[in-house]
TrEMBL record, chain A:
Residues 11-26 have a biased composition (Basic and acidic residues). Residues 1-39, 65-87 are annotated as: Disordered. It comes from Wickerhamomyces mucosus. Involved in the biogenesis of the 60S ribosomal subunit. May play a part in the quality control of pre-60S particles. CDD domains: NSA2. This is Ribosome biogenesis protein NSA2 homolog. The keyword Acetylation does not apply.
From TrEMBL, chain B:
It comes from Wickerhamomyces mucosus. The keyword Plastid does not apply. It is found in: Nucleus, Nucleolus. WD repeats lie at residues 135-177, 178-210, 220-268, 269-309, 392-433, 434-475, 476-509. This is Ribosome assembly protein 4. The keyword Nucleus applies. Pfam families: NLE, WD40. Its main location: nucleus. Keywords: Nucleus, Repeat, WD repeat.
């Protein structure tokens, strides 16, 4: 358990005004000196959840310490050094001092490498979704003068409706997609670059709930949509500008009122 | 979409509707008196000759070959009119005499026209059209590529895996791995005598290797930051028997001249206050350096004195090109790749090659062009004046690379605004824009006959451009990622490129 955090800066202010108590330094030194004993005691006596938490923290500290010691030892060794392992990509001299614009660069070679492996070709960021029942998806609309007919349905989720869509005559319309719940654009995040861009949706490719929902353009969590990425300036191997790209919805649009998605690269 | 061509503007539509001038050559032109003059030596041939006013370039060529007694195997020439002999003002003759001289009323039919002739390349380079190989080997991004000056079968690349590699382009296989650097190899430079390769690296050192991939001793240390550019001393300035010197530029703002035989620094030029982006060794014994401190400096290679400081740019100077770059790179070799038998002969041959490009009307004239982050370029004649000859504007983003054509008549600039522009190499006048890339253009390379140009870009393609038609000749897709470096071999047979996808690609006709 963390103790309550002090509200506002009154402690610092007090120290500034009145200074610390006279034996502060000595108490501090003693506390540090006792710390090993305290940790040893904790390690032996803490039980249950707190014991687990303590062990976890201690383990992390030890790993960090060992790494540090190793780095220090390596720095003292003389002789030919190994070639530097650079995590970041090498750059030619004319790009070295320039800031990289990260919106434009999308398909990095690491992603290409991944694609070569083919193994996770069909994997998506959200592999499983919650099932949605028909009752949740549709609201029954009663029609007829006595409200006795109940064949009309209204979708309660957000939908994507294509550009040239016209509603059928009211008399015939079985499924209503409310205009207030229609979405045209989505906040799409590029996973490698970490940038989020507001991009127009082109179509709904697959709704994992049911193929019928795909047809109706229902946007739920886990739905694969196609977005217009021409703004990002991605380029294919043939040098053409990439236009449409798939993305998966990561939030529940009917809860947030917006569509957030992650680009599939 | 970015690739969609916008509808023509109102101005363009109006232009299109205007009655167009028809380029007809009148038949009844009077004869004109012409005089031929060699461009390198300034000797005149045959005295005054009366020719029809609508004589074409081919006819002039035939006539000149007859006068020089070379009908058996005629040499192609290009002609230009000497407009003002005092200033040495030259106007190129394109197609025929009428359209380029008489119609713009530069001269009348009454005047004596002095035509300066320059031999063109005898051979013709065919545009590369297909990838012949994609060779894996490098473990990281390829940063630089260069062909050997004497043959198209050898090529060297430097990469981010801290090695440089020599490739056999005939069999399309790796030949040697040059291991030794401890960080990225940023620049490679093949000595114009074809025997030594210098590599500059991110680990602040330069290493020398022989043609067969053997390391020539310890690295050259001295710079405190990474090496940005390397240049060799031109062969015609090297005393026979000596090994050519090397100049290196670094991010730390210093330039060092190295004795490659004794492996010691001879001189250090500390003048730039910021990173030096490019260094070139001119055929007249001076060293040009361009820097991020917005200046270009001219140094004397003999004693290390600063001759001139050229200030005009308003931002970083990115690149620098000499009108004689290509001749200096080739040294004593030509497209046949025959090795000169002795150093004396090599020196003579190299001087000949150099004079062919550098001499205009018998006067050696070397121009430089500098490209900058301020979107402009400047053309200079640094040994004549510190004022630029011309300011070249038009690019909408920074200019990354400029290069003179092998004959020094044209120059191209590659910019991050996706375009390549062609300019007149003598006056700096704008000629044409090559559009087609959909991302920043990084580098360009000329074919040795000056008829073609290849460019590499961020959009993963290479494109070959035709200088005569000013159009895209061939599009070369194939790379999986950004292409950082491209080079065209001296005999014109191959193009090599490398980039982020770690594969060296070779392209042939």
């Amino acid at each position: 358990m963390k103790p309550l955090q002090p509200q506002n800066e009154y402690i610092e202010q007090h120290i500034k005004q009145h200074g610390r108590r006279l034996d502060h330094e000595e108490r501090k030194r003693k506390r540090i000196a006792r710390e090993g004993h305290k940790i040893a005691k904790d390690a032996q006596t803490l039980k249950g959840w707190r014991g687990k938490q303590f062990a976890q923290k201690r383990y992390k500290e030890k790993v960090a310490m060992k790494k540090k010691i190793k780095a220090h030892q390596e720095s003292k060794v003389k002789g030919p050094t190994e070639p530097l392992e650079n995590n970041d990509e090498a750059l030619p001299t004319y790009l070295l001092d320039r800031q990289q614009t990260n919106t434009a660069k999308a398909i990095s070679s690491s992603i290409k490498q991944k694609r070569l492996e083919k193994a996770d070709k069909f994997s998506v960021p959200l592999p499983k979704v919650r099932g949605i029942s028909e009752e949740e998806m549709f609201k029954v609309i009663k029609t007829g003068s006595k409200k006795s007919k109940a064949w009309k349905r209204m979708i309660t989720k957000h939908t994507f409706v294509g550009e040239g869509f016209t509603r059928r005559p009211v008399k015939m319309e079985r499924i209503i997609r409310p205009t207030a719940l229609r979405q045209k654009k989505a906040n799409v995040t590029h996973p490698e670059l970490g940038v989020t861009v507001f991009l127009p949706i082109l179509s709904v490719k697959k709704n994992p709930q049911s193929p019928m929902y795909t047809q109706m353009g229902v946007l739920t969590k886990g739905t694969i949509i196609e977005v217009n990425v021409s703004e990002l300036g991605m380029v294919t191997a043939g040098g053409k500008v990439v236009w449409g790209k798939y993305a998966q919805i990561t939030n529940e649009p009917d809860r947030d009122g917006c569509v957030n998605a992650v680009l599939l690269v | 979409m970015a690739t969609l061509i916008p509808p023509p503007s109102k101005k363009q539509k109006r232009e299109a509707q205007k009655p167009r001038e028809v380029n007809l050559i009148p038949d009844d032109l009077p004869n004109v008196l012409i005089k031929f003059q060699a461009s390198d030596t300034g000797d005149s041939v045959g005295g005054g000759i009366r020719v029809p006013g609508n004589i074409s370039e081919q006819q002039l060529e035939q006539l000149l070959n007859q006068l020089l007694g070379e009908q058996d195997d005629p040499i192609p020439y290009s002609f230009s009119l000497l407009n003002d002999s005092k200033k040495g003002d030259l106007i190129d003759i394109k197609d025929n005499l009428y359209t380029s001289v008489l119609k713009p009323e530069l001269k009348t039919t009454e005047d004596v026209l002095t035509l300066v002739y320059t031999p063109r390349a005898i051979f013709k380079v065919k545009a590369v059209t297909r990838p012949s190989a994609s060779i894996a080997g490098h473990g990281s991004t390829i940063l630089c590529t260069q062909f050997a000056p004497h043959t198209s079968s050898k090529m060297v690349t430097g990469a981010g895996d801290s090695t440089a590699r020599i490739w056999d382009c005939n069999t399309q296989t790796p030949l040697h791995v040059l291991k030794g650097h401890t960080n990225w190899v940023l620049c490679v430079s093949w000595c114009p005598n074809g025997e030594v390769i210098a590599t500059g690296s991110m680990d602040n050192t330069i290493r020398l290797w022989d043609e067969n991939g053997k390391s020539l001793g310890d690295p050259l240390r001295g710079h405190t930051k990474w090496i940005t550019s390397l240049a060799w001393e031109p062969i015609h300035l090297v005393k026979p028997g000596d090994s050519p010197r090397l100049v290196s530029a670094s991010k730390d703002g210093s330039i060092k001249v190295w004795d490659t035989a004794r492996r010691v620094p001879l001189m250090t030029f500390n003048g730039h206050s910021s990173s030096v982006s490019c260094v070139k060794w001119s055929g007249q014994g001076v060293i040009y350096s361009a820097s991020h401190d917005k200046t270009i400096r001219v140094w004397d290679a003999k004693n290390g004195k600063l001759i001139n400081v050229l200030k005009s740019h308003a931002h970083w100077v990115n690149h620098l090109s000499l009108s004689t770059d290509y001749a200096l790179r080739m040294g004593a070799f030509d497209h046949t790749g025959i090795k000169p038998s002795s150093p004396e002969e090599a020196q003579k041959k190299a001087l000949q090659n150099y004079d062919k490009v550098a001499k205009i009307n018998g006067v050696t004239e070397e121009r430089i062009v500098t490209a900058s982050d301020d979107f402009t370029m400047y053309l200079w004649e640094p040994l004549k004046s510190t004022k630029p000859v011309c300011r070249m504007t038009g690019h909408q983003k920074l200019v990354n690379h400029v290069q003179f054509s092998p004959d020094g008549r044209n120059l191209v600039s590659a910019s991050f605004d996706n375009s390549i522009k062609l300019w007149d190499g003598r006056t700096g006048k704008f000629i044409s824009t090559f559009r087609g890339h959909v991302a920043a253009v990084y580098q360009t390379a000329w074919s040795s006959d000056c008829r073609l140009l290849v460019s590499c870009s961020k959009d993963t393609t290479l494109k070959v451009w035709d200088i005569k038609t000013k159009k895209l000749s061939v599009d070369l897709p194939g790379h999986q990622d950004e292409v950082y470096s491209v080079d065209w071999s001296v005999d014109g047979k191959r193009v090599a490129s490398g980039g982020k996808d770690k594969h060296v690609r070779l392209w042939t006709h």
